């Protein structure tokens, strides 16, 4: 028998306003019908026997969120973040699908062996659906076609070195190497790029003040992003049949480059992260290395243009770049190394909080529910080729729902976070928007105040040919 989900505030995303109605879901987790009025719901209930009716009353019921930028560091660094904890955190934040980055795990997802290690480790542990990016590094060109054929969402690379030991496992690629590789790959693939390039004359850190945020910030100016985005937009215009995606942009100085490139017909999308939209360099106290990330958090004056770019569609996606680490690498243990911004691992933990962070801040910039839907549901699905069954409430789509109260507030505390490591720059902040339930393919994977059941998430693998894109869920 079918399941029935009811709410007075169903947000489809395809319409401006809420509907007061219901969603009929088949036993295999597919949406059979959307009912748009209470009268239609009453008629259905009178004439049909459902297996279960879930009435969320005044809660917002919208498509499940999709995060395309999550570092799940298992295998190899499960203590940083493993599949079980990461997907629990995702579910508690209203996310029904997440896409894993190829870095940080051992081995990274740069070979077929690395992808198999990821999928075999994930299977049976995940509470939401999970897909994978493949990694593109200088010496793995012979692996790329196999990774794409095997089901990665696309290929991800970096134009700047990251912290050790990950830099040895996932080295940066030059734009010249990237161009040469692109010439050998089929069209209609996605190339996702961490958009920072090294400066010709690097800026030295202030070694005398290692526990001051400014000592780190000065080493990664906006010019690093400008250089990288200029290089990628040039490649995007040369390879117009390939889709380029700019990851975790922090600087508003790159927005005109993106707008111009899109206007010239390139297949280019771009994302920013909740921390760039909500946190400011001026507010970061000494030793608070949980704020360190790359690119860095910039000044408050940087933020309004980023919000405006989301409103206009210049920035397409909001994604977490969730990258927690243990207290040692984050320089959060007591002793001499505590609070050293120059040595701390660059990564922010926020996967569970993304919806609440964005909702707390967006309305002051003139954004609303439709912008959350666009940047956290629809566009992420399009980026990863999931748009035929994810990111929308419509007949034939997966019954993936985020059920939340946009008017309810809460204070962030470490004990409420389900990620493997609890340190986050949002501790003690008061946020608005509380997720009460998360449904993946008709299964209630998260319900507030209740324990998790079985891990029923599935692995998403993208099957590609030159003209056809198919997905299998295993």
TrEMBL record:
<comment type="similarity">
    <text>Belongs to the metallo-dependent hydrolases superfamily. Allantoinase family.</text>
</comment>
<dbReference type="GO" id="GO:0050897">
    <property type="term" value="F:cobalt ion binding"/>
</dbReference>
<dbReference type="InterPro" id="IPR006680">
    <property type="entry name" value="Amidohydro-rel"/>
</dbReference>
<dbReference type="GO" id="GO:0008270">
    <property type="term" value="F:zinc ion binding"/>
</dbReference>
<dbReference type="InterPro" id="IPR017593">
    <property type="entry name" value="Allantoinase"/>
</dbReference>
<dbReference type="GO" id="GO:0005737">
    <property type="term" value="C:cytoplasm"/>
</dbReference>
<dbReference type="InterPro" id="IPR032466">
    <property type="entry name" value="Metal_Hydrolase"/>
</dbReference>
<keyword id="KW-0862">Zinc</keyword>
<feature type="domain" description="Amidohydrolase-related">
    <location>
        <begin position="60"/>
        <end position="442"/>
    </location>
</feature>
<dbReference type="GO" id="GO:0006145">
    <property type="term" value="P:purine nucleobase catabolic process"/>
</dbReference>
<dbReference type="InterPro" id="IPR011059">
    <property type="entry name" value="Metal-dep_hydrolase_composite"/>
</dbReference>
<keyword id="KW-0479">Metal-binding</keyword>
<dbReference type="GO" id="GO:0004038">
    <property type="term" value="F:allantoinase activity"/>
</dbReference>
<dbReference type="Pfam" id="PF01979">
    <property type="entry name" value="Amidohydro_1"/>
</dbReference>
<comment type="pathway">
    <text>Nitrogen metabolism; (S)-allantoin degradation; allantoate from (S)-allantoin: step 1/1.</text>
</comment>
<comment type="subunit">
    <text>Homotetramer.</text>
</comment>
<dbReference type="GO" id="GO:0000256">
    <property type="term" value="P:allantoin catabolic process"/>
</dbReference>
<keyword id="KW-0378">Hydrolase</keyword>
<protein>
    <recommendedName>
        <fullName>allantoinase</fullName>
        <ecNumber>3.5.2.5</ecNumber>
    </recommendedName>
</protein>
<dbReference type="InterPro" id="IPR050138">
    <property type="entry name" value="DHOase/Allantoinase_Hydrolase"/>
</dbReference>
